[in-house]
Structures are given as structure tokens and as C-alpha cells.
């Protein structure tokens, strides 16, 4: 299963990518995040493996995230017109996924975030979920992007939201 979602953020690209890459901010915008801890490497850098635990309602997912691309490596003084790439793979029971994020300047004070997502399911239960609820994955990705936008632009913290 593959899909692409995108959103515009009313912040300069360099500021948006710095907020996105900062692990201290992840719990503020990544709804359902229980744990994100590096197992090897430095957070957000290519080759880093992290244990990730997410929870939605009563459903808990645990997997291993590997950062496969981060360009540029230094997120300060990013050249105008260049594209920032964040890519990662997550492997969990019955599932493999990849997210390929591109952040570009949509204007002097606006960032366009485009996220290409791919999922592969191996277990019977996960294959069934993928077949019966493909829209749920796209909806969750878009929710994470909207939550990041609200955090980045307005300082909203998903932990304080009333669902």
C-alpha cells in the first residue's frame, strides 16, 4: 500500500525542519507516542536505530525505526531552494513501512511538507487490516502532520488536547 500526503506550514523551512528533527518536541505533536528511544546512533541521523512504541486506543504497536536518509545532515543555514529529505523505515510484527519526507520552501515564510508512505504486511492479521482499513493509515499520517503544524505554528501540544 502506498500513498502521499502533504501540508503547508506557516514557518520558514529551516525552522520547520529543526522543530521536526528535535526529539524533545516529538511527544508534543506525535499523537500516540509512548516511547522513542535510540538503540544505536544519534537521534535522527542516518543509520540510527530506535525502539518506537505507539498506542491508539487499546492497540499498541512496537517496532524498530531506522533512519535511512537525512539531507542535509546539518539543519542550519540550509541553502535556499534546496530540498530537505527525512527518510525512515519501521519494522514491527507483521509490518514494514517507509516514510519519505521532503520539505521545500513554498514561500519565504512557508514550508511545504510532502510525505510518501509505503506499507507492506506479512502477518494474516496485519494483511487483513491493510485490506479492510487502508484509509486509516493515510488518515493517521495526515493527523500527525496536522498536529505538527498546530504545534509549530501555535505551540499546541497533543497531550493537552481533548479528543
From TrEMBL:
CDD domains: SRPBCC
Biological source species: Lentzea waywayandensis
Protein name: Polyketide cyclase / dehydrase and lipid transport
Gene3D superfamilies in the record: 3.30.530.20
Alphabetical list of Pfam families matching this protein: Polyketide_cyc2
InterPro entries found in the cross-reference section: Polyketide_cyclase/dehydratase, START-like_dom_sf
Amino acid at each position: 500500500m502506498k500513498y502521499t500526503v502533504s501540508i503547508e506550514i506557516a514557518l520558514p523551512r529551516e525552522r520547520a525542519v529543526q522543530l521536526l528533527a528535535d526529539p524533545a518536541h516529538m511527544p508534543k505533536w506525535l499523537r500516540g507516542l509512548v516511547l522513542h528511544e535510540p538503540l544505536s546512533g544519534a537521534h535522527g541521523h542516518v543509520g540510527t536505530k530506535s525502539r518506537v512504541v505507539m498506542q491508539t486506543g487499546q492497540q499498541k504497536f512496537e517496532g524498530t525505526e531506522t533512519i535511512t536518509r537525512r539531507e542535509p545532515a546539518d539543519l542550519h543555514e540550509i541553502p535556499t531552494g534546496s530540498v530537505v529529505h527525512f527518510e525512515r523505515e519501521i519494522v514491527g510484527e507483521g509490518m514494514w513501512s517507509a516514510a519519505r519526507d521532503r520539505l521545500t520552501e513554498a514561500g519565504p515564510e512557508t514550508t511545504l511538507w510532502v510525505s510518501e508512505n509505503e506499507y507492506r504486511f506479512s502477518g494474516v492479521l496485519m494483511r487483513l487490516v491493510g485490506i479492510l482499513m487502508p484509509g486509516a493509515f493515510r488518515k493517521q499520517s495526515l493527523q500527525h502532520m496536522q498536529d505538527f503544524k498546530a504545534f509549530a505554528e501555535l505551540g499546541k501540544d497533543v497531550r493537552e488536547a481533548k479528543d
